[in-house]
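Quick log. Single chain, no ligands specified.
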Amino acid sequence: MITTIQIIVLVFVVFAASRVILRAKDKKISVTELFFWLAVWAGLTGVVFFPELTAPAAAFLGVGRGIEHRAAVLSHIQALCENRRAAAGRNRCCKEGSNRQEEKEVIAFFETIIF
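-> predicted structure:
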């Protein structure tokens, strides 16, 4: 049986993949980047529809369960958000609030998908 979160992720992945394809069509990204992002979105779809696929990765990484591997992925996503903000020249203690709120929303979205 397909769950609500699987439908949401599938819609998101189809949208994201369409954006990647359009950017490649407009020559804004290279063919290598196109295949990379399509692989990322296909991998996300595979993990959401077949969560047992995370078990070998969890065993390889030395964590007990696949869910712990997903928690590690979430922490990497959070680190990417921090690096993105730092690369944009913003102070880590910025007072703008909106960028921080946007990052919190992205992290919350991934938490709902992963957990």
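DSSP finds five helices and no strands in the chain.
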